[in-house]
Amino acid sequence: MLTVSGLKKEHGNRLLFDNVTFELRPGRRIALIGGNGAGKTTMMEIIVGVQEADAGIVSKPSDYVIGYLPQELTESWTGTVLDEVLGGANHLRQMEEEINEVGAQLGEFDHPDYDARLERFGALQSRFEQMGGYQIEAEARRILGGLGFTTQAMDRPLQELSGGWQMRAALARLLLQKPDVLVLDEPTNHLDVDSVGWLEDQLNAFPGSLLFVSHDRDFIDAVAERVVEVAWGTATEYVGGFIEFIVQREERLAQIEARAANQARQRAHAEKFIERFRYKATKARQVQSRIKALEKLEEIEVPKDSDLKLRFSYPEPRRSSRVVVEIEDGDFGYDDEPSVVSEVNIVVERGQKLALIGPNGAGKSTILKAILGQLQPRSGQITLGTNVDYSYFAQHQVDALNLDFTVEKEFRMAVGESLDAKRNVRSVLGSFGFRGDAVERRVSQLSGGERTRLALAETMCNPVNLLILDEPTNHLDLPSCDVLEDALRVYPGTVLLVSHDRHLIRNVAEQVLEVRDGKAVFYDEVEEHLFSRKAGAIKKVSSKTADTKKQAATQHTKSAKAKPAEPAKPKPKQSGMSGNEQRQLQKKVSKLEASVQKLEAELGAVQTKLADPEVYADNEKMHQLIDQNDTLERRLQRAMLEWEQALEKLG
Questions:
Q1: Which of 88, 10, 74, 68 is nearest to 212 (CA)?
Q2: β 66-69/181-185 pair status
Q3: Inter-axis angle of helices 619-650 and 579-610, nearest 10
Q4: 323-352 tens-digit pLDDT
Q5: Which one of 16, 127, 253, 422 has the largest count of C-beta atoms within 10 Å of its C-beta?
């Protein structure tokens, strides 16, 4: 178990957090949330040993393995995607090398240690098999497939891929490693909707502890069983997912307000008494008593509403034509490569809010670039309506910020003369959370989320009637996502939105354009097509389903140890059970044992297929096998649990 006790950290003269205490027990999954700059990443780095706390300790067993996924990767890659991911299973590779070494020594039949070597060889092989060593490459390919890698991409040098795909590979390596504790900082930032849903299933089945930062409410609700909020210089733990957190936090804030109001009444009453009897000798003792009581009284601070939620109002744009964007028989691609997406026919009207969804690489950003004129269609026609003024937030917009400028200077330089003269620069920045001295901070000192917020402020403050946003929530905290959601809901113009944040899509978009398998299909119903895993397969996840999965995972992952190939037959208990009961229980044990062996054989057959690289060339077949593998693993774990319980009862 990993325990965090009394952590304190200051940044310059600013207190990030103090007296932070919580436990990461085996199987516990905690979501760490809070505003940008509150200290979430700092707290994670203290837990994994990258930074030191000013006070407090992190306690864990000496052999505890912690797997950490930071927001930004700093390491260099030298191998292929598959090779780098297999690096997460170095312990198995070392064991395999030892098996080969001991196996080579078995050729010396007359060696005095031959029997000991043979016994060692058998023990290593058994352990290697139980740990999944013979299926490790198939498992690595399964994980990579679930995270969106094709078989061709798995064999490419990882260094050649974009930062987002490198982050996915780093996540795959951690999932293959299966450490005691997973610490993930914004793991969904570079994932599409399909991969986020797949990751939810993997983390729900993960037997170790999990601590993660995320702004995705659906993801938090599906995975977390506890929420730790970092705010107002401390951390508060809540039991349950995101919905339970919201309810409990509101109740807590109401209690704080009630206590503060009661304290204010007591203070006013005491001050009135002191003022009335200050110069009366007979009341001197009582007056002094109340003065001392007031001096010792610690004032209860009530969090301000502005700390919880920010507001932003748009400048009034000019009126565009009814049809804002029209694409007729569009075919889009790059250089001599095959078309990314073709036969695109859409009409976007004034005031419409359209979300583009689908796997990464399917062509969502390609369509946006074509609309912006950055990419010419191979065929077809793209038409922008009259009086259409647009502002574009790209995935890498943050990289364009000048790190040497202050927040205010960067904003002024980016916006220039386009800002309405009636609107104060500091007021606009305040709407995006940059208040007071925060506007004087250098951009280089901002967190990833704060930089994203600044880039969004530059994008959204202009009086345009078309907003084109490509993954705007990456690195944003929950309050900032609330700002963005509220702003987009009241925005009077047209919105084209690419995002993996299902909560944002659900609450902003009126229609969706699903880009998948080279096609773009328009749907009026957002919810029905939000959880699609692959073409023609719709998976709608409710909170009830997520809770059921969470409970099932908690139950069956506790018994994930592999069953011995030939278990010894247990002896029946001599008392407390009749002979007939013993015979019935023995039959049940035998039946369960046969079921386990059958499931192991079926799982082995599926994993053998997954080990074939050609499988990954067929996207649909690959996902079918991955789903089948996951189902068999869950059934096997449940069967193992029943078998072990029956064995224990039989004695």
A1: 68
A2: parallel
A3: 160
A4: 999 999 999 988 888 889 999 999 999 999
A5: 16
